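Lesson 9: reading folded outputs for more than one chain in a single document. The general rule is that every protein is listed as its sequence immediately followed by its structure tokens, and records are never interleaved. Here is the first one.
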Amino acid sequence: MPASASAKHLTSIELGRIRRAVGIASMMDTAVRLPVIGVRIGADSILGLIPAVGDIAGSLIGLFIIDEARRLGVPTHKLARMAVNLGIDAAGGTVPLIGDLFDVYFKSHRRNVGIILDHFGISEDELNRYT
């Protein structure tokens, strides 16, 4: 089934849930491009600078994305993969300074949204075309 045909079978509520997850992931992982080096960072990288509290906050937001995927009917094995991504991000983030650099490159929220988009066979560009 072509990717665009999959998106046509999604309800407006489902498309809204996916858009919300994509927006949150973008805010958490790629909201701002750092000048000169060109790396994109988000709120997760900045929150990670706050010992313990930042990593917990980032993980709770990641759990929200996983819950949205569950509500959308993403299969359990993909939800498990999403949980592993979040766990790796949380564990890596606990190491002072090195964990903060790890957060900049691992981007678990974007990975997890990628799993959702892949499951439904749509890209972010296609998602934005549907109203």
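And here is the second record, again sequence then tokens.
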Amino acid sequence: MLLGATVPIGADVRPTSALGLAEASRRVLMSSSARSTRHRRLVGAAPDPLFAVVLVLVLVLFLGLVAVRPAAAAPCWFPPVAGTIEDPYREPPCRWCAGNRGLDYRVGRDVVVRAAASGRVVFVGTVVDVRYVVIRLAGGWRHTYGRLTSTAVEVGDVVLARGTVGRASHTFFFGLRIGDDYADPAPYIGVLRGRPRLIPIDGTPARPAPPARPMCLPPSRRVTDHQLRYV
């Protein structure tokens, strides 16, 4: 006990050296300082601005990847016949109004009509004395092949692109329906391109020609004469 210290009556007085009092005071001060520092870190500490910016950028990037989907490429179909479009698609102003709900081709005599794209046959028959074949594509769109002189498919058949659908003479109709609406098929019909190749002149058999592929063109270069071309 320090000399001169006043001790209240009834207090629990225990002999304590000056060194002991100093050690006890140091422990109390250190404990209080540690609790105060920990409290400031847990409660009063402000978030790091750089960390907040990085977190926001990560969230924006993640949401952008989730929300954005790549746009599906437009289809490019084979020409259904070798011929020339003489009457293009003309959208009728109303459901029952006059118009041209497809493409009218001028073709030769007894030409082969081929599937513009792969699909399943859902209709074969005549409507007002006109023979039609309807093929549903994988995405639900439907191709209509009309004014046929004969057919080579039946309902339920799976037809691959360039497979034979039937035959036509002089005129041929090709239409497109998306759901219950008629649409212009011309933007999706490509120019049939063949690749030129060398042919031996010493009597050696020539290699088979590679299959021709369709190439769709922008509206400014679109053609109405669907014949085989070489590039």
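What the second record shows: The first helix runs from residue 18 to 44.
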